[in-house]
Specification:
The structure holds 3 protein chains of 3 kinds.
Chain A (H helix, E strand, L loop, with lengths): L8 H9 L5 H14 L5 E4 L1 H16 L11 E5 L26 H8 L3 E6 L19 E2 L2 E5 L5 H8 L5 E6 L5 H7 L2 E4 L19 E6 L2 H11 L29 E5 L8 H16 L3 E5 L7 H16 L18 H12 L2 H14 L5 H24 L2 E5 L15 H6 L5 H6 L3 E8 L5 E8 L4 H14 L15
Helix pairs in contact in A: 2-3, 5-6, 7-15, 9-11, 9-12
Chain B lengths: L3 H10 L6 H22 L18 E2 L9 H4 L11 E3 L4
Chain C lengths: L2 E12 L36 E2 H13 L3 E2 L2 E2 L2 E4 L9 E4 L6 E7 L5 E11 L3 E5 L2 E5 L6 E7 L6 H17 L12 E11 L9 E6 L2 H20 L8 E5 L4 E4 L12 E2 L6 E2 L2 H10 L4 H10 L5 H9 L1 H10 L7 H13 L4 H6 L6 H12 L5 H14 L9 H5 L3 H14 L1 H8 L3 H15 L5 H13 L1
Parallel strand pairs in C: 13-14
Antiparallel strand pairs in C: 1-11, 1-12, 3-7, 4-17, 5-6, 5-16, 7-8, 8-11, 9-10, 12-13, 14-15
The chains are: A alpha/beta, B mainly alpha, C alpha+beta.
Chain lengths: 489, 92, 471
């Protein structure tokens, strides 16, 4: 085992299909490590289902059948992705014990390919947060330093992949929830184009922003997973009917002559150490023949308020269905139906969720709709148009993923708006619906990972994955440092 | 500053009970939101011809029946319901 | 003081698609509770709606039939309110960009009741209350509805009735709904206000929710009108509120509202995409529309010479009118057929529902055959009517019930001979007739008719008899 994460999916595929290790054995290894792990990455571990699936894969291999590249690869899903018969809690008291009766499309696709689901990973409640600490089981710990947060909201998945207790994870990214924890935990996080991966079965936070994303060791791994889960799904009206993903094939493409734009506004208020590491990455790209150019994208400044207005509004509406009538938590005592619903919701939701529901209903309520919601929707178009313009000029954009590295656990935060500021680098991608990928580009003086973010035009996953992949190869994966824990293959 | 009544109205729309400190916090946060949103207040452009972030249209399902879920499956999440129904018992 | 009544209607028409509006569960009435449900129509976390293509088609059909403009781009919005009958805690509807706008229904008087817009939306589930407990059946949740919203153009309960009947009729004609009030497949909310006669300023309105009977709707409007006037006359002020009509006492009462403050926080549903139509598509639908009841009514009265009263009965149900249209093919005098339908056939059907369904054993071409025999003089009306009754009972063609000789008819010579014989054989009757007893002639007529086995024409025979006797 090397000290760097050089990708694990092809490796596992080779081990299993050449019978160098049985899938059963491998799965047990992971389950053992999960059991021992102190990262608090998992909410639910699916031991029985995982072993059963592993057995099936071994039987196939034994029978000489060819297996999919993802068959037998032990992985996890963020606990916001619906799994039939397996508890799906959104890290909320509201959904403790809730077992969906249907599978999310992305999960069903992987299951059909033979993926081994180890369990459901930790997150900020209903994906609302950037630390993973807003979870009803407490936050996950950063494998690089367990006193630090994983970031969020897909923190459990990021911890699991970085801590080697899952080969890869699916998360969800509404405003950075895949990319930011990936950057905090030193792994790759891909947020695909809106409409490229089906949202069916992804429990909604901001429906117009949510996308299922990939947490993986390398861009190559991310590419393999993305190609497997992306594509048209008739169950999702917003799913793009024309899209056939083939990013893996383009990973060998040369990036010489590629134009990379550096939007200045993204670098305002960014930690010096972070900035320097990204500038070094630019030099790496320049050495590979990439043209680097700074430019101004002032519309980015409007993104945070636009994002929070729209996302809270959608969340308030999306989360109104948790009323105790059909599933999930129901309060013990009440005098009528209305009180049952109010008590259920007041008990079931945590503080951050309540805060966003209130804000959302506030901006939608009569008298404020025009000033907030409608205005924000229009400015969303303005931002979108600015990005589209930028992509006529540049192939990709390069920005930090987060202005800072991971912060200590149980930190005292300022006002919600101050906390939201930390999302400044990630929310524009969701606001515009474009893809973005966070790639490890070094470590700060505390030894915490730093991520850089590569953005591309809509449906340009092939391009940004290749740009990320080329960098990893050029730097010999030196920034994908492997943490000494979990399953080492 | 947003009034207490307004907060209570929003809480009512949200079907949430708030205690005193939560009401105070919510007032502050909504005020914060207003200030936060002020950034975009003054922008005045013609939005008409600007692109939507997702340009997909006309996604329909065909009018052909697919089998529904069995009643007992549907009522699993409420411990089987009562007489085939979802059921909310009255308390006094 | 005299007052003008101002009424606007919001009518919910349940569409008879096979499936629900956002999933493929059956749109079916009367099933066991919670058996036409899936994670989507139950609003399970993570599920997404997908619009039924047929609902869009039906909405356009309805819009065109109601003289509306069809919007080339329309969108779905969320209407947010929390209630156990609403699985997602919002109803997907159209608020900002509905599919059709600016139409009208023309009343018999020529007055046009303007339609502001038509939008598509989903129905809520059914709540059952037993002993204070609440039971929810989500079968109806997600059933597709059209809401047809008028301008406040209606000025009497009669006009409201006529409007609703016409709307019902048109929806049935274009095949988008069976509009069964008893099953709740058409319901309306009624907005009522009064203002001093001739005044331009509208009064404060009250809204009566969920009327599912035309009769009660008319009564409720009349009741509200009187109530408003009484309040105003006594110097009071009308309170804007939502009411429920109580048929037992013919009165209204304030409804406990679903939320204390009705603030639906409408916004565009991000889970659904724009509905973009082309003019060609709309024209295609326009060309596929059947003849509408209004057009048929005019044709029956003006071209066919059918009385207005009969024409109303013929067009009331599409099945009847379609039957009529197909039974009159190639006929010069279509009144025979309309008389058969309104007479013998309707008499064989007991309820309005049966008339509406119009499932009879006799096929339209069989009636056509019958009418043609009459038209060509081969069969007289008497025999035809008798045969028709048997046809309706058996479903067999007319030829089963009339013989070759029945259809040969009978010549005037033969009839004359029979009359002469009858006069000879009934001298007493002849005397009686001559002394002024009109009835006596009827007896003679009866005996001749019997001899012709019904083939003779009674009028003709009477004429011949009179001629013989007077000579």
């Amino acid at each position: 085992m090397s000290d760097q994460k050089r990708g694990i999916i092809k490796h596992i595929h080779k081990l299993i299909s050449k019978k160098e290790i049985s899938c059963m054995e491998l799965t047990k290894k992971y389950l053992d490590e999960i059991d021992k792990s102190l990262l608090n990455a998992y909410i639910t571990v699916c031991e029985e289902d995982a072993l059963e699936q592993a057995k099936k894969i071994d039987e196939k291999v034994g029978a000489g059948e060819e297996i999919d590249i993802l068959a037998g690869v032990p992985m996890t899903l963020k606990d916001v992705i619906s799994t039939a018969g397996i508890e799906t809690t959104c890290a909320s008291k509201m959904l403790m014990g809730y077992k969906p009766i249907y599978d999310a499309t992305a999960w069903k696709t992987l299951k059909d390919k033979g993926a081994v689901l180890l369990g459901k990973t930790n997150m900020d409640e209903f994906a609302m947060g950037s630390s993973c600490e807003n979870s009803c089981i407490g936050g996950s710990k950063n494998p690089h330093n367990t006193d630090y947060v994983t970031g969020g909201s897909s923190g459990g998945g990021a911890a699991a992949v970085a801590g080697n207790i899952a080969a890869y994870a699916l998360g969800s990214d509404t405003g950075g929830s895949v990319r930011q924890p990936a950057s905090f935990c030193g792994i790759v996080g891909l947020k695909p184009t809106y409409g490229s991966v089906s949202r069916y079965g992804l429990i909604a936070y901001g429906s117009g922003f949510d996308q299922i994303g990939v947490l993986a060791q390398t861009a190559e791994d991310a590419s393999i997973i993305f190609d497997s889960i992306a594509g048209y799904d008739p169950m999702d009206s917003t799913s793009s009917p024309k899209y056939t993903p083939n990013s893996y094939e383009s990973l060998s493409g040369d990036i010489k002559g590629l134009k990379m734009g550096i939007p200045k506004e993204y670098y305002d208020g960014v930690d010096e150490e972070v900035r320097k590491l990204i500038e070094e990455a630019m030099k790496v790209y320049e050495s590979m023949g990439v043209k680097i150019e700074y430019f101004s994208l002032p519309e980015v400044k409007y993104t945070l308020p636009v994002y929070y207005i729209l996302v809270c509004a959608e969340a308030a509406s999306n989360l109104a269905r948790f009323d105790g009538v059909r599933y999930g938590h129901r309060t013990e005592h009440y005098k009528d139906v209305n009180e049952m619903m109010c008590k259920t919701r007041s008990e079931g939701f945590g503080a951050e969720v309540k805060r966003r529901i209130l804000l959302g209903n506030y901006v939608l309520s009569s008298g404020y709709y025009d000033a907030y919601y409608k205005k924000a929707q229009n400015i969303r178009k303005l931002i979108t148009s600015a990005f589209y313009k930028a992509f006529r000029e540049y192939d990709v954009l390069l920005t930090p993923t987060s202005p800072v590295t991971a912060f200590p656990m149980n930190k005292n935060y300022g006002s919600p708006q101050e906390v939201y500021l930390a999302d400044i680098c990630t929310v524009p991608v969701n606001t515009v619906g474009i893809p973005g990928i966070s790639v490890p580009c070094g470590f700060d003086s505390k030894g915490l990972p730093v991520g850089m973010q590569i953005l591309g035009d809509r449906f340009s996953e092939s391009k940004i994955l290749n740009v990320a992949h080329r960098y990893e190869i050029e730097t010999q994966y030196e920034n994908n440092k492997c943490v000494d824990m979990g399953v080492r293959l | 500053m947003i009034s207490r009544e307004e907060v209570l109205n929003i809480a009512n729309l949200s079907k949430l009970y708030l205690d005193e400190s939560e009401i105070e916090d919510a007032r502050k946060e909504m005020d914060g939101m207003i200030n936060f949103a002020k950034k975009i207040d003054k922008i005045d452009v013609d939005f008409k011809d600007l692109p939507e972030f997702n340009s997909i249209s006309n996604a329909f399902h065909e009018d052909e029946i697919k089998e529904s879920y069995p009643q007992n499956k549907i009522l699993e999440s409420v411990d089987g319901g009562k007489d085939g129904y979802f059921y909310i018992k009255k308390f006094n | 003081m005299r007052y003008d009544l101002v009424v606007g209607l919001e009518t919910h028409v349940e569409l008879n698609t096979k499936t629900k509006i956002f999933c493929n569960c059956a749109n079916k009435f009367g099933s066991e509770p919670n058996t036409n449900c899936c994670p989507i129509c139950l609003g399970h976390p993570g599920t997404l709606p997908k619009l039924n293509e047929k609902v869009v088609n039906f909405a356009i059909r309805a819009g065109l039939a109601l003289n509306c403009e069809v919007n080339l781009i329309s969108k779905m919005d969320r209407k947010n309110y929390v209630y156990p009958d609403l699985p997602k805690a919002y109803q997907i509807s159209q608020f900002y960009d509905p599919i059709c706008k600016n139409g009208y229904i023309e009343l018999d008087s020529g007055k046009k009741i303007r339609i502001n817009h038509i939008h598509m939306e989903e129905d809520a589930a059914k709540l059952v209350y037993k002993g204070g407990d609440t039971y929810v059946d989500y079968n109806r949740g997600g059933v597709p509805l059209l809401e047809v919203v008028t301008e406040p153009d209606i000025s009497s309960s009669d006009e409201a009735k006529e409007y609703l009947e016409k709307l019902q009729m048109i929806m049935r004609y274009i095949g988008v709904s069976d509009c069964k009030m008893q099953e709740g497949s058409i319901k309306c909310d009624v907005n009522v206000s009064v203002k001093p006669e001739g005044s331009d300023k509208l009064g404060i309105r009250t809204e009566i929710k969920n009327m599912n009977s035309i009769t009660f709707m008319a009564k409720a409007i009349d009741y509200e009108r009187e109530r408003h006037i009484e309040i105003i006359e006594n110097g009071g002020k009308i309170m804007q509120q939502t009411l429920r009509y109580l048929p037992e006492t013919n009165s209204t009462e304030s409804m406990r509202s679903k939320e204390d403050a009705q603030d639906y926080r409408y916004f565009r549903d991000p889970d659904l995409v724009d509905i973009v139509l082309t003019k060609e598509q709309i024209n295609e639908i326009r060309n596929s529309l059947p003849e509408l009841p209004g057009e048929r009514f005019k044709k029956y009265v003006n071209e066919f010479g059918i009385s207005e009263n009969d024409a109303v009965l013929l067009v009331k149900y599409k099945n009847v009118s379609d039957y009529f249209e197909s039974a009159i093919e190639g006929l010069k005098n279509v009144k025979t057929v309309s008389n058969f339908i309104i007479g013998q056939i309707f008499r064989s059907l007991e309820t309005e529902a049966e008339k509406e369904e119009f499932k009879i054993l006799t096929a339209p071409n069989q009636i056509n055959e019958l009418a043609k025999l009459i038209e060509s003089g081969k069969l007289n009306m008497n025999l035809a009517k008798k045969a028709l009754i048997k046809m309706l009972e058996s479903g067999k063609p007319v030829t089963e019930f009339v013989s070759e000789s029945d259809m040969k008819g009978i010549s005037r010579e033969e009839m004359k001979k029979m009359c002469e014989e009858a006069v000879k054989a009934n001298e007493n009757a002849v005397k009686d007739y001559l002394s002024g007893k009109e009835k006596a002639l009827k007896a003679l007529l009866g005996s001749v008719m019997k001899q012709t086995r019904g083939r003779g024409n009674a009028q003709e025979i009477e004429e011949i008899l009179k001629g013989i006797i007077v000579k």
